[in-house]
Each structure stands twice: as C-alpha cells, then as structure tokens.
Amino acid sequence: MDAPEPRNLAPDASPRLKRKLAWRLNRLRCMTPAEVASRVLRALQARTESALRAREVPRPQAGPAAKAWVHPSPRIDPAPYVARVERIAEGWLDVLALREVDIGSPPRWNRDPKSGIEAPLAFGKLLDYRDPDLVGDIKYLWEPNRHAHLVTLAQAFCLTKNRTYFVTLKEHLESWFVACPYGRGPNWSSSLEVAIRLANWAAAWQLLGAEILDEHPAFRDRWLAGVYRHAQFVRGWLSGHSSANNHLIGEAAGLFLAGLAWPHWRAAEKWRATGKRLLEREALAQNAPDGVNREQALWYQQFVLDMLMLCLLAGKANGHWFSPDYEARIEAMLDFIASVMDAGGNVPMIGDADDGMATGISPGGSPFRSLLGLGALLFGRGDFKLKAGRLDDRSRWLLGEGADAQFERLDAERTRLPLRRTFPEGGYYVLGCEFETPREIRLVADAGPLGYRSIAAHGHADALSFTLSAGGREFLVDPGTYAYHTQERWRQYFRGTSAHNTLRIDGVDQSVQGGNFLWLRKARAGCSLWLSCALKDSFEGWHDGYRRLEDPVKHRRLIDLDKAARRVRIDDQLEMEEAHEVELFFHCAESCRVDPVEGGYLLEQDGICVRLTLPENGAAQVYRGSLAPLAGWVSRAFDQREPAATVVWRARIAGRAVLRTGIDILQDRARAPLQPD
C-alpha cells in the first residue's frame, strides 16, 4: 500500500470503549451549559483533592446528647433479630439476589460478592464505578457497605444485652475503617452511599447507647472521626443539576440525621441546617402535589418516603419541626400508594427498582404496607390502617412502646377517607369497582411524564400502559426492572416499550434510550378524558413518542370499564399515512395460566378468570421466557427474573385505524375477605 493511499491504520476501538464514549456524548447532550461548567469544576476539585492529605478531624466536644428517634418496645420479638445476627457473625448475609452469601467476617468491603472482583483503592471521586471490569456489579459491592446489617446487630444488642453482638458490630466497623480509608475506593465514590451509611450509623449509635460506647473510648473516637469525615464529604459533594433526584434527598437525610445524632462539632449545626433546608425544598420539588414522585418509579416513591418520614420523626424528637407543607406532601404520597395498591396488597412495579436496603430499620415485609402503617399513626388515617393490615416492627422501633395501643385505638371507619382515583400531575388514573373486596377490579392507567429532569434516569418507556388486578390477584402487570449497571441488553428490554402493556410501532421504543440511566428523546403523554360514575369509568390518554418517525404516528388510547358487566374495553386509535408494523403487548403475572380461546386467550388463577379478546385482522403469539426475542419475563426483585406469559398481537396497518381489545372478568369463586400477608 502506498503511503498516500487513504486508509486508517489505527486499530478499531473496542465495543466497550465505543459504548463508554457514546454514553459520555449522550450524557453531555442532556446537560445545560451551566451543568457542564459545574461538572468541569467538580472534576478539577476532585483532582486537586486526590493529591491532598485528609484534614485532621476536630476534637469532639461534650454537650447535650441527642434525643433518640429509635426505641425498643416490649412488643418486639427478639428471636428473628437474634437469628439474623448469628448468621451475620458467621459472615453470611443476603445481598440483593444473593441469599446467604459468604461476605467474610469481617467482610471484604471492597469486593463485589457477585463477581468476586476487588475494586481498587483509587481516589473515589475519580473512580469509574460504572465499569464492571473495574469494580464488578457496583450495586452488589455497595449494598453491604450501607451498613444496614449493623443496625440489625445493634437492635439485637438492644433487645438482649448480649455483648457478642456489640463485639461483631465493633469488628465490622474497625475493619471498615482500615479497608476503606477516607476518600479511597468505591465506597467513597457516591455521596448517596456515604449518606445512607451515616443514617444507619445514627440508628446503630442510638441503639447501642452511651454506656457501652464509653467502655470502648478508642473505638468510639474512631467512629466519631468517621462520622465527621462522612458528613463533611456529603456536604461538599452534593448531587446537582440533572442528577439532583432521589440521591439529593438521601444525601440531605444523611446530613440532617448526622447533625442531630452527633452535635459534637460546630460543623454539626451546618449539617443539620443544610439537610433540613434541602429536605424541605426537595420534598416539594421532587414530589408533585398529587403525591406522585416525579421519578415515575414506585420503588423510589417508597425510598423517598422512607427518608422523609424518618427525618420527620427524628426532627420531632429533637424539637426541629418541619413545615406543614412538608408533612402534607408526605400524606399525599401515602395517598397515592394506597390508591394503586390492590386488595391483595400488590403495588404495580412501575419504573425502576433496585431493591437496595436504605435504612436498616427494615419492615421485614412489604415496605409499602409498612409505610402505610406508620402513616396511619402519623396522620390518623383509618384507610391507611386498613391497607397496612397490621403494625410492623419498623413502626414500633420508630414510635416506641405506645405504637401498638395507638394503632388499635385508631377507628378504621370513622377516620377513613374516600379512595383517590386521579393523579393528574403524576399522570396516573385508577379505574375500578368494589374496591377492597374479593370482587375488586383495579386498573391503573399511565399517562404521565417519562421521568424526572433531563435524563429521566429511572423512568420507563411505558406511556399509555396499564396494570390490571381482580380480586386482589394480579393479571396484567408491569414486568419490573431486573438490571441496572450490568447486562445492558436486559436493561434496555425491561425499560423499553415492549416490556409494558401498551402499543409499539415499527419495533422501536416510544422514547429513545441513550444509556442505562439516560433518555435522549422523551415521549410526552397526557390525559384528555376522565369520567367516573357508579356505572362506568372512562380514561383517554395520548402520547407523541411516534411523531418523530418519518411518517408520524399519533396514538390515543381509550379505556372504558363497564362495572356491572365487569368488562374493560380498550380502543387504540392510530393516525398515520403509510403502513407501519403495530404490536400490542399484554404481560401476564407469572402465576397466571394462559390458554387460547376463540378470538384471544383465557387467563386464570385462584379461581378467577379473565378473558382477553384481541383485535381482528392480526396474529397473536404467546412468549414465555423467550431469549430471541426477549419476551415473557417478570422481575419481582433486582437481578432476578422468571418466565411469565406475554401475549403479543401484531399486524401491518396503514392509515387511520382503531384497534379494539376486550377484557372480561368472567367469574370469581366466593371466599373470605383477603387478609394481609
């Protein structure tokens, strides 16, 4: 080859490098000039800090101790806590999808227990925690480092006074201080993770009590030094701009709780004040007045609620009151959860869910029911009490020994408010009848935004999708999330349009994905009609996601529920000029039996039958656990999936068309009212 011959002699970039570069470019496209400038300054700040030595921690000053917001109760059975901490002491822990995984005793804090990859102790703020070759699956690495299990150890100690549990907690923390020096490694790469660790430390510190900590002054002082460094780290590295979502609320909560729990330095007042100011602001900014979290993800709704309610109670215990608007927004968020929860306690898996345990004061059951039980006592709401069913240990730890008596005294009927059906800012509408009975029909329709801020990190391309339950049993579901940073193909599938009960055109998503937590083009959606009366509910919505096609397609969906006939009719209206491939998806719960019948399919479980009648002039197919194409899966928990029937109807259609789908709830066997789990 002659030298002048045009040819690129450089080796082609690896697919991994190409994906990384594409993600960076897409991320830049979602930033304003102000955010770009801010991130450049932060990068310079991080590089400067990486060359500096950590500052000395000021000596803590004696002063009035904080009033506890975590309390033991005689109604709490120590046995489950003892059983858990015995396994923790042996080095066994549940980490997301991994059950009884050997994390070591003390744990290997910088090791991903799923892949076995040991992350380097590079400067945390510059460490690329998204790189699985470098850190493994960062979700699995971070989870034990949130130290929720230390709260369990402290709870067991508080209930039994068995010093073995304190010794285990002390060993874990001492080893963490050695393995994770300030600013180094993956456990110093995310302010949210640092803040969650702080929140769990605050609970464990209170449960242990001053007496035993004073017996170990060297350990106590090392822990206090860690507290100071954690809080200062969070305050100086808060999430901003397009990343100021639930992360910022978690960071603010960590700061606020640290400022209350450890008033040992002048800086503690700044932590508390900064945290409270951010919580007040973000509680209203990130959650719409109708109670829907703007991430459009139900799991993050409960994560944010958990943080907001914990800070509310901690503040009240110490005389730092939040505004009436803050409390009202919490109640509205609980209202939304109660409205979309069916008679069986099922909540649609709308949007992302990572199943990470934030605070170690865990409910041990349904986190949604747990929040409603706590909300019943905070707001005197009988409807929340009915939804919760019972009071759990989490409420007992947070409200003390009087919680059970207060819960029992709450009149569930006289303090019961009517079910809310419309959430116009969040974009959700509840169609149904005979609520909270064995004959309930509950359909949740989605005409909301894709997600929050420019990247809409945790939203899914699910415009005009819906979920359906009958008699407290799920029939048509949102399949969930499954993957985050790793397994890119699965990540794209579960957040894409084909993984939701809606319509897809030409095999492309309504919105355009630009990375695992990024959307480049976002479909707008809205509700154009809502009517409800004793006989009928009607919802009509629209979205413009397919207006971007060369031949634009307008999609409108009308959903009617005839309550007497127990029949749902869905009309999908399409306006276009040329021919397009059209698909309708119906994702069945994994417990459903699906059999073909004339014109459609029969879905059955627990004696309840639902008949799905599909539009004419198309072809239907059922997928169950398919890998090519990806179809027929449900993910009930992070990194877990199982096969489930997905009915797909396909046709090639040109011009204006109306596709009619019928759903008939045919029969249900008589049984006693559903009982909470």
The computed structural class is alpha+beta
CATH architecture of the largest domain: Alpha/alpha barrel
Strand order of the largest sheet: 11-12-13-14-25-18-17-16
Question: How much strand?
Answer: 15-25%
Global shape: globular
Number of strands: 25
Number of DSSP helices? 19
Helix share of residues? 25-40%
Mean pLDDT: 92
Please give the largest β-sheet.
Answer: 8 strands, antiparallel
Gyration radius (Cα, Å) is 26 Å
Descriptive overview:
It contains 19 helices and 25 strands. The protein is of the alpha+beta class and 677 residues long. The chain folds into 2 domains: 62-409, Chondroitin AC/alginate lyase (Glycosyltransferase, Alpha/alpha barrel); 423-667, Beta-galactosidase, Chain A, domain 5 (Distorted Sandwich). The chain has an 8-stranded antiparallel sheet, with no helix packed on it. Helix 6 packs parallel to helix 8 (191-208) and helix 10 runs antiparallel to helix 11. It is globular.
Topology:
Layout: H1 15-29, H2 33-50, H3 78-89, E1 92-95, E2 98-102, H4 132-135, H5 138-145, H6 148-160, H7 163-179, H8 191-208, H9 210-214, H10 217-235, H11 246-261, H12 266-285, H13 298-317, H14 324-340, H15 367-379, H16 382-388, H17 393-399, H18 403-409, E3 422-423, E4 428-433, E5 441-446, E6 466-470, E7 473-476, H19 488-495, E8 503-505, E9 512-515, E10 518-521, E11 525-532, E12 536-543, E13 554-562, E14 567-575, E15 579-587, E16 593-597, E17 600-605, E18 608-613, E19 619-624, E20 626-627, E21 630-631, E22 633-637, E23 640-643, E24 645-654, E25 657-667
Antiparallel strand pairs: 1-2, 3-4, 4-5, 5-6, 6-7, 8-15, 9-10, 11-12, 12-13, 13-14, 14-25, 15-24, 16-17, 17-18, 18-25, 19-24, 20-21, 22-23
